[in-house]
Amino acid sequence: MSFKRFITTSFSNQNIMKFKKTISFRPFDINNRIIYDKEPTIVFKDQKSLLNDTVLTSLEDGREELKIKMGRFTPGFDYENPHISSDIIQININNYSNKVDLYLNGKNPTFLRRKGELPNKIKNWEQLLGEQLEIRKPITLEDGDIVSFLGLNGTTSSIQFTIKEDEKELERKEEEEEDGNNNNNNNNNSNNNIYTDKRSNSIPSLSTTSISTTTSNTKKTKTSISNIDINKIQLKKHFEDPNSKNTGLSALIYYSNKPESFPDSVLYYDDKTVVVLDKYPKAKHHYLVIPRIEINTLDELTPSSIPMLEHMYDVANAIVNEIISKDNDHNNNLKKSDFKFGFHAIPSMKRLHLHIISNDYNSKYLKNNKHWNSFTTDFYIPFDNILNELKSNGKVKIDQIKYNSILSQKKECPICKLENKNLEILKDHYTNCLEKVKKI
């Protein structure tokens, strides 16, 4: 019989684990099926244990397992219950799996009730408390599980576990999902050409339309939109498509290559640009103008890109004029000053795109620091700044370190510079500030 050699390290020398979830628990009244209104005890967060009775065990093959013991004197436990030992249960987090194992260390009867499985009618406490745990026999712990400790005369003490993605990891995944899904109804529709000719033609092609532009050495961009047929602009409302699929960072390229295959999302296209709904709009109005040539970042722009940029601006201007015309038919009193044309300093997706966004920032999709800072700080570069720099210097210089630091800075009101950690409160505050400015 061969044995694995175990090496144990103390809590103070604990390594960063690969497990990226937060584990916490709260006292739970299993008899009345309610969770106590108390602050949760956080067991594991930011890839580290927050409890002192923790050891890191390594095997000869290099695998690591974090063992966290909990019991009577752990904050959040019923320390008055003498039947709960100081290390009655233990959770093990393996660095090479995405699960949490629960072990029973003590002899006191301990039970596990899976989340959502509390019966409406019970005949005895065994039916209420669930499966009785066996000493040192692991069982996978899941989000919402209730662990109960049985005392004398049928008294119980219970805790309910919560296992959630770390906030940073969840935010990263949400951003990846948005970046991947952004403005993509379904790439398979494009590849398989499932749209009928009739539906494809519901968006008129403007490939023969020419547009004149005038350049200027002044700070303000001068453009002409007289050759854009506004009757061929089809405004659409933002919508959620549960059947959309992730096509990664290249999602916008599919619109650029074959805009006629996406009639639900494309507002306008010609031989130079495509305008689409932003799938995760950060304001009431949020659209993207995508060039139909391969260019992905601002520092790839050259003087030869100037006509393309000016055309993108002209198209954006025509879209906004149409939006204002249609919205003001409903007494919304929109103005040109309510919209911003600009680029993200570091685009989140392949194929450079110009944002058309209203300045209300009223959207359920604007939900974290990165979203807020990407539109309310210098990370969002106005169109005129990019065009003027390109004309003056022949290129656009982007300081990656500078703009990444802006993206991660504390969020504040772009009008009065008030800081607030709570985004929803900040959004309400900004709305009030904006209304005051409009009245001036």
Concise summary:
By secondary structure, the protein is α+β, with helices and mostly antiparallel strands.
Describe this structure in words.
- The N terminus is likely disordered.
- The strands form 3 sheets. Strands 2, 3, 4, 5, 10, 11, 13 and 14 form an 8-stranded antiparallel β-sheet that branches.
- The chain has 10 helices and 20 strands.
- The protein starts with 6 loop residues before the first strand and ends with a helix.
- By secondary structure, the protein is α+β, with helices and mostly antiparallel strands.
- A hairpin with a 3-residue loop joins strand 15 and strand 16.
- 24% of the residues lie in helices and 22% in strands.
Provide the fold topology.
Layout: E1 7-9, E2 21-29, E3 34-35, E4 41-45, E5 48-49, E6 54-58, E7 64-70, E8 89-94, E9 100-104, E10 110-113, H1 125-129, E11 131-132, E12 139-141, E13 146-150, E14 156-165, H2 167-181, H3 187-192, H4 197-200, H5 251-257, E15 266-269, E16 273-277, E17 286-291, H6 306-328, E18 339-344, E19 354-358, H7 369-376, E20 380-382, H8 383-393, H9 400-407, H10 423-439
Antiparallel strand pairs: 1-6, 2-3, 2-4, 2-14, 4-5, 6-7, 7-8, 8-9, 9-12, 10-11, 10-13, 13-14, 15-16, 16-17, 17-19, 18-19, 18-20
Helix pairs in contact: 6-8
Tags for this entry?
20 strands, alpha+beta, disordered N terminus
Proportion of residues in helical segments: 10-25%
Mean pLDDT: 79
How does the helix and strand content classify structurally?
alpha+beta
The tally of helices reads 10
End-to-end span in angstroms? Answer: 84 Å
Q: Which range does the strand content fall in?
A: 15-25%
Main beta-sheet annotation: 8 strands, antiparallel
The low-pLDDT segments are: 1-13, 183-226
Identify the overall geometry.
Answer: elongated
Rg value: 29 Å
N-to-C SSE string, H for helix and E for strand: EEEEEEEEEEHEEEEHHHHEEEHEEHEHHH
Tell me the total number of β-strands.
Answer: 20
